[in-house]
Amino acid sequence: MAKSTIYVGLEIGTSKICVVVGEVRVDGAIKILGVGQAPSRGVRKGEIVDFENAQACLHDALVRAEDRSDVMINNVFLAITGAHIKSFNNRGTIRIPEEQNEITSEDLEEVKEIARDVDIPQENVFLHSIVRDYYVDGQEKVKQPAGMLGKILEADYHIIHSIKTRVQNTIRCVREIPLDVEDVVFSPVASAQVVLTQEHKDRGALLLDIGGGTADYVMYSGGSI
Question: How buried is residue 27: exposed, middle or buried, by Cβ count under 10 Å (0-12/13-18/19+)?
Answer without folding.
Answer: exposed
